[in-house]
Backbone:
């Protein structure tokens, strides 16, 4: 396949135009196309090509590392693709400025180390194709992208067109091809937009979004089977005092079959103080407790877990903090890793008056709830007493389990739980408690968050894993919201028993990664400088290695030239060779002396050992750069004379 | 070997062949770009790769439409030689005849050989050379074996040749191929094709044209092969050595002795002298050597055997001077002794024999030993090429030593170390030159 002159330069310029790096692209283009005008050619060997390939791999890895550390790790592919023309530059330069038409792209690392054969390849068209891809990955949205791309492709096709047809036929075909491609683009864009719309509708109708939603919480009631709980660490806590046992994340007020939703959708902004602090409540205690939380928010937004009695938050790296009537904190835009301090006074809770919906009971659950309330004989007892009876009811009759059973023979999974199975996980306990309280006339809400129970193995503080996610109830009693957690206290132990054997190993790597992320967040370090230094060092090392080899070869050539200048010296050994040749067994072309002697020995006996020792001296005379030395020369002459004498006597 | 794997390989190979035949190099590159852009361009909002996809797809589509119609008005006649040599480039002429009025250009010619896809039984029973050294997975999957059998069965690497501009009176052109193994290469036909205007796809027409080409074994340079041994009296002279009959070189007359053939009686002289007189003919003395090829192997095909055949062919061609008669001995489906001497025709005939020789798996080595024993008295020297060493082979070598016949024994091996171990374990004290497959020339130079 032919690559027309200046084609690679043009693709680089196209890439620069798309990536808005026109100056860099022009320089690269000149560097690559300059090879056509330069008469200098590097004599690169196979090992040099392999070193260049390894350098390119190192550059690629460095680029990936740079992007992973500076951007979101999942999306490294696209930025790396965009920069490939620059990353692969050493290889294309090796081809353009090297003496060979083809280069070797390979490695000596790993299994390819031992005498692996690498086939030479023409890298230029691979490079051109990659450059076109990189230009497209830059996503410039330029109107000229397609016409320019098509022109480049037409250019290379013209150089490789079928010779059975005229250039006119070729040009005529390109016109419908261009319009067909253009129509295809418009069709795809329209189709994609329609598909997107459709998917959004289907998504909204059938699926629920992942993670904590301030307006909606899905429960696992409807599922059947055993819940799978992940041991992944999602939060780190540090506190000088014993930490709070629960961290509230979200609160919901209306229940329907298996979903809790929040009727009040309004969030109000929490004003930011002078010191990048957000005041959540009036400070009660002169010496509040402090808690440091580090949590990841992969979507750059989310709900902020906080202890009960939170008064002030500091250190958040966000644009704005908002909250709703259920006491939920939310931010819409911020860093992925939030490392913040909360000061709180334990025991303090919200006094915000409940609304009507805090007493709402779905019709489906009425019968089962009524049956339970009847069995508890609560009559007209005060609210505190009613709460105690409900708590005892769960304490005495229910057990914790991770198996979900669905509705079974009952109207709903909750009825099944209350009247039949009496075994379930925290979502069921929290929902049942909230609804029983409501049935007894006490306003309640369903709350989700995390239980703090596990100390970290590495460093100080506590870790919160995915499986520590918890649900409980808040009831409005005596004009304030209090926490009611009816889930049997052994739930943490039960879930711990489901932990993986390899959890400590995973924790260790998670800890390392977390520390790196914290360091980055603290230092705001981009790693551009150290990685650039590494790249420059690697490149210098490679160039030095190749230069040293080229230099060495040059020196060797000099030595060869000097050697040729030595005057030739007659060796007495040539007489022996002549005598042996006359003996009948002629020496073949390119036959080694030892092989010849061996062959002669099959016909007539000769003293091989002596001959070989004399031959060694003869070789020394011919090839030793330091010369043979007087003593050895005498030895050779005498030896030859003696042998010839004996040889003539024998014959 | 799993039949399912065999089916997958067969199907993949067929698809691969179709792909190779249909796409030009540029076409392959554009297709690769098209597939890659289809994969990476799915999200049309995050990149503009989908625009690449549309452009490339439209080009391939138009190319394909153009490649559908292809009408050719030429026919080609090839002139193949009867034989050629493995590893050496063969050039032969094509005669292109134009049947229509249109002048043709931009056409390509490619030979078509017999389908190299092995049958399942061949695939399952023909292990690749050195397969035991492959890892467990490769041995189980047998993919390398598949590639090896395909290459072996194909016999020669073919490339396409651009045809010259064909005018009214037609044209002639020379094409070449390099066979890489001995034996027959079966030509089934040829293909004439052209690239579409964009140069991405081909349009082709297939033509019947059956022909066979016998590839003679690879020959290594073996300058002045040195035979030991003396000239011997050959009853009946050289003619008898070649076929049968007496020498016609008249020497004189003598009295009849009991046992003289009646046809040698000179009736006129007998009538004149009154005694029975016979004509005496000059019998000849010349060197007659044996070339023994060991064909006894459990495998139908092995590199070692192929190399042994090449060594035999090399010895045969190296010894082709007028003074020497060489008897080639081997056991195939039947025991064969063939003589060559003064004349290229006989040597060529023997090379053809060697081109078709295959391993003998159903007879014992003693067949070759008894063939040699019956013939050995006529021989001045012997070259014996072995492919293994065991008790029977050692006994044969011992016998040759006992008979004091001058001989050179060679053994072709995969690995020199293994060969030495075999010789040591069988306690072979006769000198045997080890020739390593792949480095035969090195070994032959040691002779």
Residues:
């Amino acid at each position: 396949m032919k690559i027309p002159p200046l084609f690679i330069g043009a693709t680089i310029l196209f890439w620069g135009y798309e990536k808005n790096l026109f100056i860099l692209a022009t320089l690269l283009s000149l560097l690559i196309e300059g090879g056509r005008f330069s008469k200098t050619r590097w004599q690169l060997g196979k090992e040099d090509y392999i070193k260049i390939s390894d350098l390119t791999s190192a550059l690629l890895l460095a680029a990936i590392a740079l992007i992973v550390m500076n951007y979101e790790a999942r999306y490294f592919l696209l930025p790396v693709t965009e920069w490939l023309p620059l990353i692969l530059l050493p290889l294309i330069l090796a081809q353009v400025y090297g003496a060979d038409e083809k280069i070797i792209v390979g490695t000596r690392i790993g299994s390819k180390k031992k005498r692996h054969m690498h086939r030479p390849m023409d890298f230029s068209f691979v490079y051109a194709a990659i450059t076109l891809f990189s230009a497209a990955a830059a996503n410039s949205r330029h109107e000229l992208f397609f016409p320019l791309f098509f022109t480049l492709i037409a250019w290379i096709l013209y150089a490789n067109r079928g010779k059975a047809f005229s250039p006119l036929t070729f040009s005529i075909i390109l016109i419908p091809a261009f319009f067909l491609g253009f129509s295809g683009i418009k069709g795809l864009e329209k189709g994609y937009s329609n598909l997107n719309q459709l998917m959004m509708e289907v998504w909204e109708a059938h699926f629920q979004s992942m993670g904590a939603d301030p307006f909606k919480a899905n429960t696992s009631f409807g599922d059947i089977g055993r819940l799978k709980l992940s041991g992944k660490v999602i939060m780190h806590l540090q506190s000088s005092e014993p930490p709070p046992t629960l961290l509230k994340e979200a609160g919901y007020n209306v229940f329907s079959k298996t979903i809790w939703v929040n009727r009040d959708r309004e969030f109000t902004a929490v004003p930011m103080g002078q010191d990048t602090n957000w005041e959540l409540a009036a400070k009660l205690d002169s010496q509040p407790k402090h808690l440091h939380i580090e949590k990841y928010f992969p979507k750059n937004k989310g709900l902020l877990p906080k202890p009960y009695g939170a008064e002030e938050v500091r250190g958040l790296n966000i644009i704005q903090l908002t909250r709703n009537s259920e006491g939920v904190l939310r931010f819409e835009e911020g860093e992925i890793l939030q490392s913040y301090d909360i000061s709180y006074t334990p025991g303090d809770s919200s006094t915000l008056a409940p609304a009507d919906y805090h007493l709402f009971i779905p019709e489906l659950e009425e019968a089962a709830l009524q049956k339970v309330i009847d069995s508890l004989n609560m009559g007209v007892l005060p609210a505190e007493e009613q709460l105690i009876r409900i708590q005892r009811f769960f304490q005495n009759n229910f057990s914790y389990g991770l198996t979900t059973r669905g509705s079974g023979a009952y109207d709903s999974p909750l009825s099944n739980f209350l009247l039949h199975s009496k075994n379930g996980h925290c979502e069921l306990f929290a929902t049942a408690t909230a609804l029983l309280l409501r049935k007894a006339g006490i306003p309640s809400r369903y709350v989700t968050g995390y239980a703090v129970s596990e100390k970290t193995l590495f460093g100080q503080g506590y870790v919160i894993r995915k499986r520590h996610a918890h649900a409980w109830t808040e009831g409005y009693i005596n004009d304030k919201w209090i926490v009611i957690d009816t889930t049997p206290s052994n739930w943490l132990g039960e879930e711990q028993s489901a932990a993986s054997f390899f959890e400590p190993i995973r924790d260790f790597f998670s800890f390392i990664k977390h520390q790196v992320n914290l360091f980055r967040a603290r230092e705001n370090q981009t790693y551009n400088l150290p990685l650039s230094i590494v790249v420059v060092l690697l490149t210098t090392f490679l160039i030095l290695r190749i230069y040293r080899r080229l230099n060495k070869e040059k020196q060797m050539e000099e030595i060869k030239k000097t050697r040729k200048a030595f005057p030739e010296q007659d060796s007495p050994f040539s007489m022996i060779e002549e005598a042996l040749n006359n003996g009948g067994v002629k020496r073949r072309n390119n036959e080694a002396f030892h092989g010849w002697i061996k062959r002669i020995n099959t016909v007539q006996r000769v003293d091989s050992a002596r001959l070989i020792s004399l031959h060694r001296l003869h070789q020394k005379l011919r090839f030793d750069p330091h010369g043979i030395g007087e003593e050895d020369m005498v030895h050779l002459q005498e030896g030859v004379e003696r042998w010839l004498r004996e040889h003539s006597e024998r014959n | 070997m799993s039949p399912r794997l065999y089916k997958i390989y067969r199907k993949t190979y067929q698809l691969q062949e179709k792909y190779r035949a249909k796409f030009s190099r540029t076409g392959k590159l554009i297709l690769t770009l098209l597939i890659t852009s289809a994969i990476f361009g799915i999200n049309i909002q995050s990149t503009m790769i989908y625009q690449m996809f549309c452009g490339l797809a439209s080009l391939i589509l138009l190319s394909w439409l153009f490649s559908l119609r292809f009408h050719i008005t030429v026919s080609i006649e090839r002139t193949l030689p009867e034989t050629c040599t493995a590893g050496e480039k063969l050039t032969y002429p094509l005669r292109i005849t134009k049947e229509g009025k249109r002048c043709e250009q931009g056409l390509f010619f490619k030979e078509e050989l017999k389908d190299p896809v092995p049958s399942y039984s061949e695939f399952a029973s023909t292990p690749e050379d050195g397969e035991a050294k492959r890892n467990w997975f490769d041995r189980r999957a047998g993919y390398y074996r598949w590639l090896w059998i395909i290459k072996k069965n194909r016999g020669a690497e073919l490339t396409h040749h651009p045809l010259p501009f064909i005018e009214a009176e037609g044209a002639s052109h020379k094409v070449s191929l390099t066979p890489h193994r001995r034996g027959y290469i079966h030509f089934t036909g040829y293909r004439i094709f052209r690239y579409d205007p964009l140069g991405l796809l081909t349009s082709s027409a297939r033509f019947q044209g059956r022909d066979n080409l016998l590839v003679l074994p690879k020959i290594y340079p073996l300058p002045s092969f040195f035979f030991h041994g003396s000239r011997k009296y050959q009853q009946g002279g050289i003619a008898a050595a070649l076929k049968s009959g007496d020498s016609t070189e008249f020497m004189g007359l003598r009295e009849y002795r009991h046992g003289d053939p009646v046809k040698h009686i000179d009736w006129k002289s007998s009538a004149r002298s009154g005694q029975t007189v016979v004509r005496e003919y000059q019998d000849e003395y010349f060197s007659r050597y044996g070339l023994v090829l060991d064909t006894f192997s459990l495998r139908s095909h092995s590199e070692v055997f192929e190399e042994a055949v090449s060594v035999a062919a090399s010895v045969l061609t190296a010894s082709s001077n007028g003074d020497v008669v060489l008897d080639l001995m081997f056991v195939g489906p039947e025991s064969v002794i063939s003589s060559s001497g003064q004349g290229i025709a006989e040597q060529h005939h023997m090379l053809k024999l060697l081109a078709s020789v295959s391993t003998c798996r159903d007879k014992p080595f003693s067949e070759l030993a008894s063939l040699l024993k019956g013939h050995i008295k006529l021989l001045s020297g012997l070259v014996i090429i072995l492919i293994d060493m065991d008790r029977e082979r050692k006994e044969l070598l011992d016998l040759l030593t006992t008979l004091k016949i001058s001989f050179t024994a060679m053994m072709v091996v995969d690995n020199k170390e293994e060969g030495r171990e075999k010789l040591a374990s069988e306690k072979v004290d006769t000198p045997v030159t080890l020739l390593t497959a792949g480095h035969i020339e090195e070994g032959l130079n040691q002779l």
Summary: Residues 239-246 of chain B have pLDDT under 50 and may be disordered.
